Amino acid sequence: MTWLEEGWRHVWLPYAQMQTAPLPMPVARTQGARIILEDGRELIDGIASWWTACHGYNHPHISEAVAKQLEAMPHVMFGGLAHEPAYRLSTRLAALMPGDLNRVFFTDSGSVAVEVAIKIAVQSRLNQGVRGRTKILAFSGGYHGDTIGTMAICDPEEGMHSLFTGLLPENPVVPLPKDAASVASFEAFLEREHKNLAAIIVEPLVQGAGGMVFHGPEVLQRLRAAADHYGLTLIFDEIFTGFGRTGTMFAFEQARVVPDIVTLSKALTGGTSPLAATIATDRLFETFLSDSPMTALMHGPTYMAHALGCAAANAALDLFETEPRLTQAAAISAQLARELEPCRSLPGVKDVRVMGAIGVVQMHNIKDPPGLRQKLLKEGVWIRPFRDIVYLTPALTITPEELSRLTGAMQTVLAKE
Ligand SMILES: *Cc1c(COP(=O)(O)O)cnc(C)c1O
Questions:
Q1: Catalytic residue, candidates 15, 39, 291, 416
Q2: pTM of the model
Q3: DSSP 8-state class, residue 269
Q4: Together in a domain, 52 and 80
Q5: CA within 20 to 30 Å of 217's CA: 161, 163, 245, 376, which one?
Q6: What SS3 class is residue 67?
Q7: Where does substrate bind (predicted)?
């Protein structure tokens, strides 16, 4: 395969030590919950391409919508011109959101959606003549993206804060207020520091890329109360949890808490196209209205509200209405709980946990992650352990038989770890 060998001298892979990184496996096509390799092997996909492909790959409804949009117009700039896919999508996203979360700002990646959320929170204060409230309170174990601004609100290790000292803006990162001790230190921190803060940001219910760590709805209620008390903007980063992954359409529904800003991406287009959205309340939006151009939101990506992406997202939203996605998520959840439970008694296993369509087996440690990946591959599954966890975030359309292949492979391989 000449494209692979030639290109290998030129591509730069994510988070990879390129000196030792193995050649990735060439993919010929995808279908449903399967990845078909160039050599003909078919893998059951346990990750759904970083949980984007929630409707399975190549869903005909999304493919048709994108093909139709491509024929009419791949994209036009969002400044001064309007196109139906984006306007329709913003209306639909606002309708899905509770309260007065009514204003949608489109971008092209999750990280940038979070950057925009930060800008909204900070500039909103500035527009109201409040200076000095520029810090964002984030939590240990959190992950919000790879750009400079978002690295600065990731877990210090994940965000490589020490490596990039001097480059990153400095933001406080504290433990999530989960138990008596962390609640007390959280409250003391806010009492001391709230005057420097614009916002609190959290991944609701599940800290995804930080190791699939769960917390209860009461944590989100605590954050809402604290944000209200100190006049802070509460940002829920639903880029991982949104669109049924935790069992409800959005994770915050389980806590009955309404944030001030929500960020969405990943499964927004069902894995078809890079698109993200930052959704803010009317109240925040109104702080940008004035007679001066200086209070306008200062952001505007070139490919903002990409028309093909918006067409894909509208089609993906249709599927939540026409196909029983949340019922499927509940069935996946029950099956994951049942079929991963036996892993708990394996010697190397520290914890087994399931929420919605997320199944996690946490190990005491994974000695040889690449070796473990190879063993899983031999079982015909695409599962990528990271840190100390082996996890499943499959397409919500995966069949029970396919899901059993994934959990079976995990059991077989982890039994020998
Ligand atoms: C993936 C992710 C991001 C970053 O999204 P990108 O599209 O990779 O920039 C931000 N927040 C959360 C919770 C994520 O899971």
A1: 15
A2: 0.98
A3: G
A4: no
A5: 161
A6: helix
A7: 50, 143, 266, 300, 384
